[in-house]
Amino acid sequence: MVLVMLVGGVAGLGLVLLVSMFERGSATGAAGLAQIDAARQRGRRQASLTADRRHSEESARMRRVGSELRGALQARGVNLPPSVRADLGMTGQSVETFLAQCLLGAFLGLFLPFLVLGPMALVGGISLVVPLWLTVFGAALGALMPYSQIRRRAEARRRDFRHVVSSFLDLVAMNLAGGRGVPEALQTATSISDGWAMVRIRDTLEAARLQGTTPWTALGALGDELDIDELRDLAAALALVAEDGAKVRDSLAARASSMRRKELADAEGRAAARSQSMLVAQLLLCVGFLLFLTYPAVARVLGA
């Protein structure tokens, strides 16, 4: 009975996926224009990504599957949270590839427990209920694994990006002190390094120049996309320079100094946490060694 229910559930899931893949709801004119604008914005964002440009055959297939899945989700009003989109933008991975990885992980987690434990359940070693429950947990875990990986990578890259932004603020302040204007100071500051974060800022400023937008507007948009507060603050400060003529050279230097102090405090906190974890590991080793030494004597006493 349980096997019949499992086969029926898998068949029903496949039927739902098949119907949702080919079903397209009718959209109004305004909704269609909004979808076209969203597709154009995605194309511009994809052109600025640097970590997802390896167009192998496997990644191309993953993007096609993810594009279909994203279109189906957006047609039903389902979008990724802003935090997930910011993490994807930081790591340079497209939303389509991320959705395809989540779908692949869910399928692997769904079928792997049943393939491993199914033969044991058929011969009567365990109950069929155990593989069924494990498939549900496996599907949820497999779908969440890409998100956890993206989250860890994004946090590491965001720390590196903040370090680069602090140096970038110092360079912009020095160029402003040398008599350069804001656009020239920004372009000169980005030409110092070829690191991935500085290249990302340089590409953003170049795209703003070609599109006819202001550099501080582009930096603010990049800060919103990557969830970097320091870039948003820099954009606001540069906008004050352009609109009100405020002297923010000292303010930029102070911001850079405060960012470095914050980074130093964070590094000290991470080092202290790792020291505590090493201390716990050493205590566990000592406890194990003491148990190893005292076990023969305790076993002899209890045996006697």
TrEMBL record:
Compartments, record wording: Cell membrane
Chief location of this protein within or outside the cell: membrane
The keyword Membrane appears for this protein: yes
Protein origin, superkingdom: Bacteria
Domain Type II secretion system protein GspF: 168-294
Keyword terms, alphabetized: Cell membrane, Membrane, Transmembrane, Transmembrane helix
Record Pfam families: T2SSF
TM region(s), chain numbering: 6-22, 98-116, 122-144, 279-298
Record bears the keyword Mitochondrion: no
Record's bilayer topology term: Multi-pass membrane protein
InterPro entries referenced in this protein's UniProt entry, alphabetically: T2SS_GspF_dom (IPR018076)
Listed name of the protein: Type II secretion system F family protein
Organism (species): Nocardioides jiangsuensis
Lineage, top ranks: Bacteria, Bacillati, Actinomycetota, Actinomycetes, Propionibacteriales
